[in-house]
Amino acid sequence: MIQMLKRQIETLTLDFDSDKYEQKLISLQSAEKNYEEKSTFHKHFKGQLIMPIKGVVKTTIDNSIWVASPGNAIWIPSQIYHDNLTAPNSEVYMLFINPSLCKVFQNACTLSISPLIRELIMFLSKQPLDELFNKTNDQAVDLLIDQLSKMKVEFYNFPLPNDKTLRSIAEKWLDNPTDRRPISYWANENAMSEKTLSRKVKQEIGLTFDQWKKQLYIVLAMQKLNDGTSIQLISEDLGYESVSAFIVFFKNALGCTPKKYIKILKGNK
Fold first, then answer.
1. How many Cβ atoms from other residues are within 10 Å of residue 28's Cβ?
2. Which residues, listed in sequence order, are joined to residue 127 by a DSSP beta bridge?
3. Strand partners, 86
4. Starting at the edge strand that comes first in sequence, how are the strands of the sheet with 37-38 ordered?
5. What gap in Å lies between CA 126 and CA 90, rounded to an integer?
6. CA 187, CA 170: separation in Å to the nearest integer?
7. Phi/psi of residue 94, nearest 5 degrees
8. Which region is the signal sequence (predicted)?
């Protein structure tokens, strides 16, 4: 069993089947690849934390697109269908946790990752699976679970509502992110009042219409910066009138400037 796992780690893919192993927690490092990698649409009994320490990971979970970069991670609860996509040259760690160990996060989310959690996950990934639950490692596992429960929940995602009208709007935005037409246009396009459309968005995803659109800008900006697209071009692609306006938006959303974020993506502080 251990030799089989060792061989799988050497060619680890994003749809690794953690349910083949009885251990309640598995921490693994995915080998850095110089190409984009995408998993199949799948689910597993164990919850999954996907933590990039370089590059970007994108996860699609039925009704939302989630993005994580160094400093945060995507949490996927037990038995939730999803697929994962890593950008070329990303360095990613995956943590699989039995639901009995971690009951705090019932829904998908992104989590802020502290340096301590990062080091604990990296440490556990280096331990042989058959020795993962010895006295020393037990303490590390207990500390990791405790610290995860205290991490700040973030929402680096773009919701894809089930409602046909809202899903249609979301898909049009994805096709053309520069589309800045106001809510009045979309209400008229779908034969409803602005109030009705606003209420529908709030009921479906818990955001205002403008907040929903900004979530798309966050996700796309994170991906485009990782792809090496210039800040100037990203601001144009997202329909901002100036680079400075985009930089202000980005800093308000992620807490750092695009230039600082690029350094973080490369694994630099």
1. 19
2. none
3. 37, 57
4. 37-38, 83-86, 57-61, 64-68, 157-159
5. 19
6. 14
7. -125, 130
8. none
Q: Indicate the helix (H) or strand (E) that contains 86.
A: strand 83-86
pTM of the model: 0.84
Give the Cα-Cα-Cα angle 220, 177, 161 (nearest 5 degrees). 80
User: By CB neighbour count within 10 A (0-12 exposed, 13-18 middle, 19+ buried), where does 8 fall?
Assistant: middle
Amino acid letter for position 89: N
The CATH topology of domain 2-154 is: Jelly Rolls (2.60.120)
**Does 161-265 match 2-154 at the fold level?**
no
Is 202 within 8 Å of 208 (Cβ atoms)?
A: yes
What tokens does 242 get? 């100036």
Tell me: the pLDDT tens digits for 14-69? 667 788 878 888 888 887 788 888 888 889 999 999 999 999 999 999 789 999 99
- Supply the angle between the helices 258-265 and 209-227 in degrees, to the nearest 10: 50
CATH of region 161-265: 1.10.10.60
Q: How far apart are CA 71 and CA 265, in angstroms?
A: 9
**Residue 243: both structure tokens together:** 């680079």
Provide mean pLDDT across the span 231-244. 94
Cβ atoms 240, 179 nearer than 8 A: no
Domain spans of the chain, in order of start: 2-154, 161-265
Q: How many CA atoms lie within 13 A of 228 on its CB side?
A: 3
CB 240 within 8 A of CB 197: no
